[in-house]
Here is the input.
Amino acid sequence: MSLRYLARRLASAAITILLIVILNFVLFRMMPGSPERILLGRIPNVSGEVVAATRERWGLDKPLFPDQFVAYLAATAQGDLGFSYGARGRPVTDVLLQKLGPTLLLFGLGELIAIVLGLALGAYSGWRRGGVLDHLGNGLSLILYSTPYFLLGMALLLIFATGLGWFPTFGIDTVGRVYSGPLDQIADIGFHLALPLATVALGLVGQYSILMRSSIVETLSEDYITTARAKGLTEGRVLRTHAIPNALLPAVTLIAINLGYVVAGAITVEVVFNWPGLGTLTVDALSSRDFPVLQGVFLLLSVGVVLANLVADLTYGILDPRVRT
Amino acid sequence: MTAPALPVSDTSLRPVGRRRGAFLREILRRPNGAFGIGILAVFTILAILPDVLVGPLQTAVTATGPRLAPPSTEFPFGTDQLGRSILNLTVHATRISMVIGLLATFITVAIGAVLGIVSGYVGGRFDAVLMRVADFFLVLPTFVLAIILTAIIRDALGTGSRELFGIRLSLLVIVVVIGITSWSSAARIIRAQTLSLKERAFVDRARVIGASSGHIMRRHILPNVVNLIVANAVLTFAGAILTETTLSFVGLGDPFQPSWGQLLEAARSTGAPGLGAWWYFVPAGTAVVLVVFAFTLLGNALDDILNPKLQGRR
Here is the structure.
């Protein structure tokens, strides 16, 4: 991978993050009500000095541009995102960090399972195009793709938690339970994680399998596949060493690009299971119009997605010699 | 006469009526197209005639049934926590969901088509900046942005109970927000097609005889990307319904004009899945899945017809 490729990707990611911060600034100023009230939230008994200090810190007595904008950029860069109304005036950054862990656990694992399963399923049904598994898998993938994530969660909750009683219905651990050791605690969290995780994985697997399938079908019509077959390689060998590696790259890129769209929608799964992560936080913040928290979630998710894309781009650069320019 | 630009546009010489009939037959000939059209026809009837089919929308005042009762002969889909018939609510929600989806699709595709055509045709720095913005929107977690925008615009407008064309303003805000946040993929696709069209001889010919850029874009480029716009609109419709459902689910619906998403939200906040009250959310949930599935199938069928190159690959 050339240095130029690396520099271009890094610059592009930096510009995107800057654009996100600018968008956040614009949204922030579009909001009804005075900015210092939004920043201070509903902290009761705010004294005149605190309001004055806030105005000073965010440069609210100065013109919107460049002074306020620069103050906003500087504050954001230092992780200062204002205060949450919902959490009684705690800094937004604190609130976000507290909820980040459960979300990372749920979506990290969920994405991983969905990607592995989806790619395998897609590759197989694309290879055996027109076969029984292809038709079945394709139909199922399309139906899963058409189902809102939270609806899938409600169905799984109804069947496996309420109906069969196999799993707990809400939360990340059993409230008030005293653990005999770390293993006991992990088991309890795993038990609570099972259904939300299954929902996220099932919700995503359909679209990943569709992506991979069309990528494999496209690849199988390339000349080098014909060449490989003409050399007398077995079908399995053609698939493993020629088709899959080439089909994987575009599929993975598309997965990375869609990440923001997908994850933002999928966080609604958390609401169904009362999973204490960013999704539940978003919905709670929305109902109390806790704008600083909403903006914080948006910033955090956007930056996360940009970074994931950067990683995908760089991996792509290492794996595929054609894009190393 | 304009030279045929897309493989499909050679049919443009035939009379309009026959062409449309042939196109519809072409869709119905495919199993996925026929299935999609069939499902959508049923839901369109539900959306047009809810009052005739199940009576006026029940409210907390006009509810007659027992609370949260399972399906019975009187209430085939059971009742909610206020005693309203779920069948009545779900059928009425069809109109709300479909109309919001339709309007949102219209705005999304209109923005995408205008920006895509102008960007592709004008080119240069304008194109570079606009595509940069489109990429930015593709990467963004647009759903969270949509939540924030909807909340801000509603608070700023103070929507209250105002209506426009019989739709509450709060729902029209959702329509506009979906349009603002989802135009980018349509713009990208239409721009790509415009780029290839503007190199064709018939565009050169128009330019040589002195046609203005606006005229060329309207009379020569636009007719040749209409097919693409339609195919894109069908898939956008599916996405718009999903987005509206999810936005309503997180609490941005309007209880006075419930959509499917709003019903699902009501079911969840009542605790229906935990209480085993499956009848509360299964009808609305099935409706969402069926309609989105139907649009996706129809979109695939259109894609097959309009991109003959891909035929046999699906």
About this structure: The longest strand of chain B covers residues 163-164. DSSP finds 13 helices and two strands in chain B. The interface with chain A takes residues 136, 138-145, 147-149, 151-152, 155-156, 238, 242-243, 245-246, 249-252, 261, 264, 267-268, 272-276, 278, 281, 285, 288-290, 292-293, 296-297, 313 of chain B (CB under 8 Å).
